[in-house]
Amino acid sequence: MKIIPYQPDQSGLAYSVGTTLDRFIKLKQSDFPFASGELSQLLRDIALAAKIVNRETTRAGLSNIGGAFGQVNVQGEEQQKLDVIANIRFMRALSKGGEVCAIVSEEEDAVIDLQNTSGKYVVAIDPLDGSSNIDVNISIGTIFSIYRRKTPTGSPIQLEDIMQAGTEQVAAGYVLYGSSTMLVYTTGCGVNGFTYEQSLGEFFLSHPNIQAPKNGEIYSVNEGTQREWEDGILAYIDQCKDRRYSARYIGSLVADFHRNLLKGGIYLYPATKKNPSGKLRLLYEANALALIAEQAGAMATDGTQRILEIQPTTLHQRTPLLIGSSEMVIEAESMISSLAKAPLL
């Protein structure tokens, strides 16, 4: 019997499809040795739910699951049918996986206690960001944060397990459902992006070690609310226009953030007279994207304070958000500081 060593194919007939998400997670498991495999499985559970939500979004126009559901969530926002479906899908995946003890969701009034006292992790999630764009076929997304519980396993969850600052995140990520579906995540050791290959049903590494440009020429903000901005934000946006920067605002947080992360730019959702505390949620929107931004060399602030250092006091706490290329965020924050006046009323 003849035995020969394996030689990688050199014919060029079969191109490499790359590294799957599952294999990448296994290779990187040493980055978090404390997890003993649970965090790896949790990331796989999220990826599985994302595949299912991707399927639902791509067939929404054909299966009568577009449009409003007829209820209002805790945020006072009208729920879309896909909001509800995405929430159910992620709840099922996270509850069946066995690694999670509690879930904080944008679509739920209270913390969801999974009654899994052996679970080591708490997940905060916006199951479907930008859902108002579903019916007009604009990119939407999922945002998630993962925290280790503070109390010992085997005991009931406590408030301290939930109300953790963003610096305590062990992982965070988002899924973008668009012209292609991408999952981008960090475990505190850089940021990597994976593109979904639908025919194979797998996420493949497509954007390794993402690094955000330090500067950019894109600003993303809803200028329809500019009459309610503080002076510093007004001055910064005027400066962007003077420099002939491009205004790009999709109205889907994940999509706007993703573009600026790759191309360089700044996303702003400032405080307004209507929403003096901002509108974006700290626990399951701002914290996740802030961790990703910082791991990619970008920045995230509320205008005066680093997002990741804000201590949450309520479940659905809101915050202003300035996030993106570091030099742009520093400049915007400097203008806010120099032109600061009394709080918006």
UniProtKB/TrEMBL annotation:
Binding site for Mg(2+) 1: E106, D126, L128
Chain segments annotated as transmembrane: none
Entry's cofactor comment: Binds 2 magnesium ions per subunit.
Enzyme Commission (EC) number: 3.1.3.11
Any one GO biological process: fructose metabolic process
Cofactor: Mg(2+)
Pathway(s) per entry: Carbohydrate biosynthesis
EC class name: hydrolase
Domain Fructose-1-6-bisphosphatase class 1 C-terminal as annotated: residue spans: 213-336
InterPro entries referenced in this protein's UniProt entry, alphabetically: FBPase_C_dom, FBPase_class-1, FBPase_N, FBPtase
Subunit (UniProt): Homotetramer.
Protein name: Fructose-1,6-bisphosphatase class 1
Organism, as annotated: Algoriphagus aquimarinus
